[in-house]
Amino acid sequence: MSFRWGVATSAYQIEGSTTADGRTPSIWDTFCRTPGAVANGDTGEAACDHYRRMPEDVALLAELGVDTYRFSISWPRVQPRGLGPVNPRGIAFYDRLVDELLARGIDPWITLYHWDLPQELEDAGGWPHRDTAYRFADYATLVFDRLADRVPVWTTLNEPWCTAVYGYADGIHAPGRRDFPAAVRAVHHLLLGHGLAAGLMRGRGRDVQIGITLNLGQARPATDSPADRDATRRADGLGVRMFLDPLVHGRYPDDVVADLAGRGAVLPVREGDLELISAPLDVLGVNYYFDATLSAGGEVRTGPLTGMGWPITPEGCADLLLRIGRDYPGLPMVVTENGAAFDDVAGDDGFVHDEDRVAFLAAHVAAVRLAREKGADVRGYFAWSFLDNFEWGHGYGPRFGLVRVDYPTQRRIPKQSAIWYRETIKSYRDGSPWTY
Fold it and tell me: So where does substrate get bound (predicted)?
């Protein structure tokens, strides 16, 4: 099987048309209306207008030369209010998208949840409430039954850490709550939702791959002091092991459970939950952006940074992939997001000479190749993102896209990085060094 080359997006960040064809509000629609929640008061109401411009965007994907497109389904678009039957007008959009992709020789890779919980389910308790896991499994089967005949790979959740921590503990993402014990309950119910949905989808008898996508990075101590080492252990526990240990080993790490108890939080595990959560994965999506250097007082950032102030640590990408292969053997991986926002400057023609993004991507592609050469079972690399888009709490300021979007006109202009990515994919295919 050939190594997969792709790009990724998410529904709320690009689709727009937030009230079209029966779609109801998600928690992000509500959050964006909260004064001060999103930079400049930006919303996803227009985004990249992908809902109406989808055929044009798929044609651009074909020009990039990718063989896989990872996108998410808008839950409130296909199941308004998170309850009841599928919305025919909402699912029809994804029917058309899948067919457009296949006609262009591009495999669709679906993410079922990329943070846009129907507002009614949040009103009923959200992810800290166990019933949301069951509602998610019901929704997942609705979509699966309509599209599994043409979609070969399915991701249940994107970055459940962000959903739980940013949304329910830190309050910087929707729904904007600040309740650490609730965030910990959300972690378990997100993983339970994954397990329930994966089990139901597998029970349909389709020849597909099913997995989950985690945002993962490693933490390193700033010094060798016991305090810095313990800060690193805690970060690794909450960011990596709290998710991979139950998914692969069927247990939460003892030290993490103790740390949580010390903060008044309990994982609400019931009998049978961990068996559901730890059913074998066909693929693990790894979203990698950077490693962190930690001291007891917080994160230490030095060296080269992206436009958002994130460290640039491609060597950490290789180390992480090798670590996953060592600590969680037998788990096929795909790098499902990797990219960076920089201070793009467009010329008079709209073209962006983004050499810094090219260098970033090239270093990380090389890291993936190094990890594979050292034995990591990595089967694909997807750049984030296909298009400049709505960047959550940051609004439309940061630009991650390979393709520039001029928001006032919605014109798409491939950047230098898009050209580089296309030529890189072509060169690796011609040389055939990425097969297994």
Answer: 13, 114, 158, 289, 384, 391-392
